[in-house]
């Protein structure tokens, strides 16, 4: 069975996820850990549970989701994967990071690209990649069908949706992504979002004010 551990990091309270199974292999998704204390919190958890991270995956490349990638790549000697359409967003972070107080941002190198419909595997676990643009042009989400959850990034939140006023955002595209890619999943699927607490597909279909 897959385990999902979340951490709220950096001033944006961004949710970073460590996903692991009974083999001990793990992936780290959207590492927003910036300072030494946050990185230590994550790595202490990995050590305490005797986990072996094998990949860093990102749903998208806004600043609050990418701050810890380089440090974790270096510590665990693992590859980083992102959708190709978000590579320009990643490369732009260094031009504005200091404006948000992140003076020591280190841009990570990308080892591979995430593609819609393909899968990421680790241990006994498979995550299906779905393309959900709108908040960011190359935004993806990761679906685990066996344990019925989605790591959704900044697409769908509890009673809300991702903002679309950042470069590459598009409101109608985001709504279409949610309707066609997320709301077509079974209602009992849990959604682990990039901020705030988890929700479910069914709850959002019934209650999300953006779809009334």
Structural summary, described in words:
The chain is an alpha/beta fold and 212 residues long. The protein has one domain (3-211): Metallo-beta-lactamase, Chain A, CATH 3.60.15.10. The protein is built from 6 helices and 14 strands. The strands form 3 sheets. The protein has a 6-stranded mixed β-sheet with strand order 1-2-3-4-5-6, with helices on one face. The chain has a 6-stranded mixed β-sheet with strand order 7-8-9-10-13-14. β5 (80-82), α4 and β6 (112-113) form a beta-alpha-beta unit. It is globular. The termini are far apart. InterPro entries: MBL_Glyoxalase_II, Metallo-B-lactamas, RibonucZ/Hydroxyglut_hydro. Residues 13-195 form the Metallo-beta-lactamase domain. Its cofactor is Zn(2+). It holds the Pfam family Lactamase_B. This is Glyoxylase-like metal-dependent hydrolase (Beta-lactamase superfamily II).
DSSP summary, beta strand count = 14
Secondary-structure element order, as H and E? EEEHEHHEHEEEEEEEHEEH
Q: What is the radius of gyration?
A: 16 Å
Q: Strand order within the widest sheet?
A: 1-2-3-4-5-6
User: What is the CATH class designation?
Assistant: Alpha Beta
- Classify the beta-strand content into a percent band: 25-35%
Distance between the termini: 35 Å
Total helical segments: 6
Name the CATH homologous superfamily.
Ribonuclease Z/Hydroxyacylglutathione hydrolase-like
CATH architecture: 4-Layer Sandwich
Percent of residues in helices: 25-40%
CATH topology type: Metallo-beta-lactamase, Chain A
Shape: globular
Number of domains: 1
Mean pLDDT: 98
Characterize the largest beta sheet: strand count, sense, and whether it forms a barrel: 6 strands, mixed
């Amino acid at each position: 069975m897959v385990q999902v551990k979340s951490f709220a990091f950096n001033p944006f309270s961004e949710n970073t996820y460590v996903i692991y199974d009974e083999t001990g292999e793990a992936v780290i998704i959207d590492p927003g850990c910036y300072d030494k204390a946050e990185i230590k919190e994550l790595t202490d958890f990995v050590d305490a549970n005797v986990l072996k991270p094998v990949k860093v995956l990102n749903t998208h490349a806004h600043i609050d989701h990418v701050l810890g990638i380089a440090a974790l790549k270096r510590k665990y000697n693992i590859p980083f994967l992102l959708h190709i359409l978000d590579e320009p967003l990643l490369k732009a972070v260094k031009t504005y990071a200091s404006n948000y107080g992140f003076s020591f941002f280190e841009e990570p190198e990308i080892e591979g690209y995430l593609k819609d419909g393909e899968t990421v595997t680790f241990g006994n676990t498979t995550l299906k990649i779905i393309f959900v643009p709108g908040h960011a042009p190359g935004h993806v989400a990761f679906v685990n069908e066996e344990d019925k959850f989605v790591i959704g990034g900044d697409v769908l939140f509890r009673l809300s949706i991702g903002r679309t006023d950042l470069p590459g955002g598009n409101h109608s595209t985001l709504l279409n992504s949610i309707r066609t890619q997320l709301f077509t999943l079974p209602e009992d699927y849990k959604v682990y979002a990039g901020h705030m607490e988890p929700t479910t597909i069914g709850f959002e279909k019934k209650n999300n004010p953006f779809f009334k």
